[in-house]
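Below is how a single chain appears once it has passed through the pipeline. First comes the sequence as given, then the structure the pipeline wrote out for it. We keep one example in the README because the format questions we get most often are answered faster by looking than by reading.
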Amino acid sequence: MRTSAKHKNPATIRGLYDQPVKENDPFYLSRIQMLDNNACSDTGVQGANVSFQTCKDQVFTLESSMAGAGFVAYDSPSAVSISSSRSPFSPHGSQSCLSDPRPSPDNTYGSPYSGSSVVDDSNKLKHKLRELELSLLGPESDTVDSCNGCFITGDHQAASMASFNCAQLVDLVPKFNLKQILVACGQALHDDDMLTVTGLMHVLEKMVSVSGEPIQRLGAYVLEGLRARLESSGSNIYRALKCKEPTSSELMSYMHILFRICPYWKFAYTSGNVVIKEVLEYEGKIHIIDFQIAQGTQWMFLIAALAKRPGGPPSIRITGIDDSQSNHARGGGLHIVGQRLSEFARSYNVSFEFHDAAMSGCEIQLEHLKVQPGEALAVNLPYVLHHMPDESVSIWNHRDRLLRLVKSSSPKVVTLTEQESNTNTSPFFSRYLETLDYYSAMFESIDVACPRDDKQRINAEQHCVARDIVNMIACEGPERVERHELHGKWRSRFMMAGFSQYPLSSSVTMAVRDMLKEYDHNYRLEEREGALYLGWVNRAMATFSAWR
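Resulting structure:
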């Protein structure tokens, strides 16, 4: 990552794009030891460890910013459901854009972990751990008062942690499943109950697996996030052993796997293309500004569609914006995208021009967009705004600044796709629950499409999803780059910037429904409040809306 002035976009949901751009970021998993235990969520059968090739110890700082608070509840198909409504993050907001700590009325789902029986069970688990501590250390150990759990200090702390025996802990919690233990561990960390945290992390090591059930795979990456958070110090979020990065072609193949088996990016560009085609269909000169150009695959479909327009195709100009650190996945700069799209447009006899702006959204100024008189402008914002720091992170408030800048360019339409999660400004434990909820649903959606022992699937999750999870759990302040907001909050931001919502036609819904026929029947599509909601079972995962 670069300095906080240049907030880099991590792989996040972008990993679900066709041939998305991977940005070199420092979300290396701390003490990379992904446990590959073949244990079910309720038992502790130990398996083999998967170690990553490492090199010298380095300090990495994560520097994008985000905002979001609150979470919502959904039922996932497996055991206790933890699908989320997008992730919630730490508070610091200015009065102009405070995140409401209560569930947003725009979020009709509720996290099953927010004050539910799962959280109650975590308190029961902590009580059992307290009983174990007393049995190990005796009632006269130097513990702090009971309201702070069983945290102890000095020599007694070291002795107690050494005394915690994994087998005893596993025997202690047979009635609790993996999800409940993950919740209890997060609660204990929030309460600064380090003895409980240490004990539960020992238990988790026996239960998680990168090749197991969805909750086991999620648990493996959550455990790394917890370790990274424990190792944080000031602006140095965590120390990590730098693992060998995949080559460009390897990373591209991992991202393509997720693009193929999950509809999240296809949802974005299918919806966007239908709306943009409707709005600009009869324009002679079209200019599209894409703030997350990746490989430019989305525009091939639109170019092909416009080439068939009665009376001949329009001239098309595309401005592609992408952080220069994305070059690794693409294997080169944005000129590669320009060449690819130019050749494609030529094959359809479409007049085409490509302009590249290799910079982050935080750096963009109006002159970089090269808007010209007489052209019809469309702006595409796919899964990118949540990486822009808002007023809770930076006085510059790039999130709202970018919207005002886009509005000043007088676009005919702006398309927005974002993860439906609330991870921007909520405190750690709420954000932690939201992360469990949301990514539980995501791992379940991946699970139905790919075998659990598929090495390519494991690599795709590790390199395209895991680092986002670690970032949301381990990082605070400007270093936390995954800062999602619910559609209701995005709507408020757009309206404050002077936009009005563009009504979606039935053609948009039909196109997305046709696309979803390629995927599992548990994906859901719902239209409300002028937006399309893509969900997994009962959990909203992403939203699409259009503005003018």
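The longest strand covers residues 539-547.

See the next section for the split statistics.
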